[in-house]
Specification:
This protein is an alpha+beta fold and 166 residues long. The longest helix has 20 residues. Helix content is 37%, strand content 15%. α2 crosses α5 and α4 crosses α6. The chain has a five-stranded antiparallel beta sheet with strand order 2-1-5-4-3, sandwiched between helices.
Length: 166
């Protein structure tokens, strides 16, 4: 079973922290009243699978760090190289995690012409071991939704984020 990965747009890390620290369980994405405009993309992790999509759009090979992601949540210092010591209570071990994606990722997705989606979907499916059983045509709606979200984020001068829940 894959992780829940929701992509959304927000003005700042602080806006996300405010929502996550509230006790009312408002979902960041999805449901009738989400906190942010977003796209549910189960299993499309930001660093590998989304990075492979970005590589497919750009026509380059995937590499580590392509999405230029950085943590927005949790707000505590990240654990050292040995990892978190308290695996039950440390938010770095338990999640959820929110990553801010680089603006170049937002702009790459925002600039994707609709006419290029079929070719990008084919490259993405062929170049991703994680999508080995996916039909390229089935990926079109997700690619279109992520591109539209990125376009709205850029138009509003916002960043793209990914919520990852185990």
């Amino acid at each position: 079973m894959g992780a829940i990965t929701d992509y959304f747009r927000a003005t700042t890390d602080a806006a996300i922290v405010t929502v996550l620290e509230r006790a009312d369980d408002t979902p960041l994405v999805g449901g009738p009243h989400p906190a942010f405009d977003g796209v549910e993309a189960k299993g499309v992790d930001p660093d590998v699978v989304l990075g492979q999509l970005v590589a497919a759009v750009r026509g380059v090979g995937w590499r580590v760090g392509l999405t230029e992601s950085s943590p927005a949540w949790p707000t505590t210092p990240p654990p050292g190289p040995d990892g978190p010591f308290d695996l039950d209570d440390d938010p770095w071990a338990t999640g959820p995690w929110v990553l801010r994606l680089g603006r170049s990722v937002r702009d790459t997705l925002a600039d994707l012409p609709a006419a290029d989606v079929p070719a990008v979907a084919a490259r993405w499916a062929a170049g991703s071991e994680e999508l080995a059983h996916a039909d390229a045509e089935d990926l079109h709606p997700l690619i279109e939704a992520l591109s539209a979200l990125a376009h709205r984020a850029r138009s509003a001068d916002e960043d793209l984020y990914c919520l990852v829940c185990p």
